[in-house]
Design goal:
With about 180 residues, the protein is an alpha+beta fold. The chain is about 15% helix and about 30% strand. The strands form two sheets. A six-stranded antiparallel beta barrel has the order 5-6-7-10-9-8.
């Protein structure tokens, strides 16, 4: 069980580790825990933006009991590399509680805009930024999410791939195509 977050009018985004995904349009090119699903927005697409460290966040998703759940916390300044994830993709951290099933669900700012999607929770982290009062080292718990900027970068990569496919589709089927 997991949740997905609407990215735009035509696509949603969720975690790659979600079982039984359908309508997968694109998987993260770097191997990160992200896929875009072909799914039309029912009530329009949400607004997305970058988080501001220290702001209130609300993590939302569906629990294993199919109940919508939310947790409130604070966005942290810390970025982390999650085990088994590519090192160039940094996860963001907040301290709102999350449970199994919330993966892929939205992380909202207090203004209702989406800041990213939930990846999961963690415990074994060594912090190098303990001097920063907004560091995750000073939070009640560790909840990881894919921040907007990382999702946007992957969306842009997907757009390039789609454009190349469209160009390839326009190319003649054969180098020896008839000219009549």
């Amino acid at each position: 069980m997991a949740t997905a977050t609407q990215w735009n009018e035509e696509y949603a985004v969720t975690t790659r580790h979600t079982p039984f995904l359908t309508n997968v349009a694109h998987q993260c090119t770097s191997g990160c825990d992200l896929v875009f699903l072909k799914r039309k927005a029912e009530d329009g697409a949400p607004q997305w933006r970058n988080a501001v460290p220290g702001e209130e966040v609300i993590a939302s998703g569906v629990s294993p009991f199919l109940i919508t759940v939310q947790g409130r916390g604070t966005a942290k300044s810390t970025r982390v590399v999650i085990r088994d994830h590519p090192p160039e993709v940094l996860a963001a951290v907040h301290d709102a509680p999350v449970v199994k099933g919330m993966s892929g669900g939205p992380v909202y700012g207090a203004d209702g805009q989406v800041l990213g999607m939930t990846l999961g929770m963690g415990t074994d982290v060594i912090f190098s930024d303990t001097h920063d009062p907004l560091s995750a080292a000073h939070g009640d718990r560790l909840s990881f999410y894919m921040p907007y900027e990382e999702i946007r970068k992957e969306w842009e990569r997907y757009q390039v791939i789609q454009a190349r496919r469209a160009e390839d589709d326009k190319a003649p089927d054969s180098l020896f195509a008839s000219s009549d």
